[in-house]
Amino acid sequence: MKKIITLLAVIGMFSLQGCTTTTDSNNVDNDTISEVFEVTASFNSVNNYSKVVTLNPPIFTSDVILVYRLAGIYQGKDVWKLLPETRFFSDGTMDFGYDFDFTVNDVNIFMVGNDLLTVTNDFRLNQVLRIVIVPARFANSLKSTNYVSVITALKINENQIQKINL
Predict the structure, then answer these.
(1) pLDDT digit string, tens, across residues 79-110
(2) Domain assignment present for 55
(3) What is the pTM assigned to this prediction?
(4) Total count of domains within the chain
(5) Which among 83, 111, 117 has a CA at the least distance from the CA of 97?
(6) Which string of DSSP letters, residue by residue, matches the chain?
(7) Would you say residue 6 lies in a domain?
(8) Is residue 18 part of a domain?
């Protein structure tokens, strides 16, 4: 009987040797990288009132994209509006607007409206846009309507914003 118990103990010791855990100190959480790109785009009938910005490298499927348009300057500070943004006629009907969609590979920023040919150049040409890549872990906790809050929460400095020429 002692031999059987000893044999079982030895087998148990060998089988439990495989139950160790290790930590990988080289593990990098790539889903925490935030980036901001600034592009200047003009919308016209030639480009179907649309601009596509390629994301290289592609983003993670869990990431979120926010796009802001420079709407003006107030007291020396830039005023950024979150897309989609809609402009209305005085009777309350939609005149035109800006919208976007994205995939892991690109962001498509476009204008919408009934007669985009009549939109003044101030709203069609040389529009400054900021594309913010928000990692999934931050997506639900950000107040996305406030550009400054988003940039502050993501710890992005103005000098880190990459300007892309289209």
Answers:
(1) 999 999 999 988 888 899 999 999 999 999 99
(2) yes
(3) 0.77
(4) 1
(5) 111
(6) -HHHHHHHHHHHHHHHTT------TT---GGG--EEEEEEE---TTTTTEEEEE-SSPPPTT-EEEEEEEEEEETTEEEEEESSEEEE-TTS-EEEEEEEEE-SSEEEEEEEES-GGGS-HHHHSSEEEEEEEE-HHHHTT--TT-HHHHHHHTT--GGGPEEE--
(7) no
(8) no
